[in-house]
Structure formats: C-alpha cells, structure tokens
Amino acid sequence: MFRPKHLSDLEAKRDQRGFSLIEMAVVLLIIAIVAAFVIPQITSYMRMYRLGVSGRNVATALQRARYLATSNNTLAGVFVAEVQRVDIEQYDPTGKEPPQNKGGILLPAGITVAPGAPKQIAFDGRGVVTPMPKDSPTIRLNGSDGYYLFVTVSPTGQVTVSDAKKDDRS
User: Fold this and answer.
1) How far apart are CA 129 and CA 118, in angstroms?
2) Cys bridge to 7: 11, 69, 141, 160, which one at CB 3.0-4.6 A?
3) Separation of first and last alpha carbons in the chain
4) Contacts for 51 with CB less than 8 Å, ≥ 6 apart
5) 111 domain-assigned
6) Is 7 helix (H, G, I), strand (E, B) or coil?
7) Residue 1: Cβ within 10 Å count
8) CATH code where residue 112 lies
9) 10 Å Cβ neighbour count for 15?
C-alpha cells in the first residue's frame, strides 16, 4: 500500500513559497506612483462632467419652458432665481396672475450661473423668444476649476450647449 512521506517541520518550512517584504514594498510603490498620476485626472474629469451635465440640464429646462409655451399657447420661460438654481415658469398672458412655477433645476456644487447672464428668457406660444432679442440670449455656466460653457438660445427657440473651455482671464 502507498504511504505518503511525512515531512519534518524544517522540510515543510523550506518548501513554502511567498513574497518577501521588499517585493511587497515595490508593488505598493508602483501602485502609489500610478495613483498619483490617475487621481488628479479623475477629479478633473468629474468636474468637467458635472459642468457638461449642468449645461445639458439648463438646456433641458429651456426646452421644457418652450414646450410649455407652445403646447398651451401661452408664455413660459426660465428664471435664474439664484446663481445655482434655474426655475421654469409659466406666465399669465394678461399679467394679472403671478407666474406659476413648473419645476426647476439645482446646479451641482461648484457650478454657477455667471452674473452677466440673463435672469429671464421667455417663449411665446409659437416657441419664439419673446421679446425678440437683438442677439441670441446666452447663459454662461462657470465651473469651480476655471472652466465654463455657454447655453445659447436662438431667437427662434433652438437651444445649443457649447463645449467646455478654460477661462484664460485668471
């Protein structure tokens, strides 16, 4: 009958394999170096992503206001209530009733509406910006890291969002 060979304690320890302390330190050093390069890139990407999402949310609010105006043949628009909040409102055409709040968006932390942006953009029942502007109304959104983008409304009501750009004024 086959019997397994019994190893002494000394022989068993000699056959065990593992990593030395130096090997583990080298691996941890490589991980730390890679993380030092990757983490700033990830945080920058997340800031740009939040700015892009905020621009699309403002564009969606404008499109929703335009939809409200055209579907109800009335006046509707957006109102920049605070630097981080944009409200969608429906207006009484006669001006007797106060505007009805139909929703809004709250911008993420670090994203603000620029001070020079129009505080109100309204659409009439045809979906056209009213009163008819000389230039296309543009809302500038500023990020906390110096990037910005524009949400532009053409006089006919078309909404576009620009790509994010770095502010060179700083």
Assistant:
1) 13
2) 11
3) 86
4) 111, 141, 143, 147, 148, 149, 164
5) yes
6) coil
7) 2
8) 3.55.40.10
9) 7
Tracing tokens 């969002």 back to the chain, one arrives at 161
Q: What is the pLDDT of residues 84-102, one digit of tens each?
A: 999 999 998 888 899 999 9
Is residue 14 a part of any domain in this protein? no
Residue 157, exposed/middle/buried by CB under 10 A (0-12, 13-18, 19+)?
A: buried
Side chain identity at residue 136, one-letter code: S
pTM, 2 dp? 0.78
Give the range of the structural domain holding residue 69, as residue numbers without chain letter.
Answer: 24-166
The mean per-residue pLDDT over the stretch 129-148 comes to: 90
Cβ–Cβ < 8 Å for 149, 37: no
Domain membership of residue 107 (yes or no) is yes
Question: Which residues contact residue 139 at a Cβ distance below 8 angstroms, ignoring those fewer than 6 apart?
Answer: 58, 80, 113, 114, 117, 118, 121, 150, 151, 152
DSSP 110-121: T-EE-TTS-SEE
Count of C-beta atoms within a 10 Å radius of residue 110: 14
Can you give the length of the chain in residues? 170
Amino acid at 118: P
Instruction: Give the residue from 96, 100, 105, 95 showing the smallest Cα distance to 76.
Output: 100
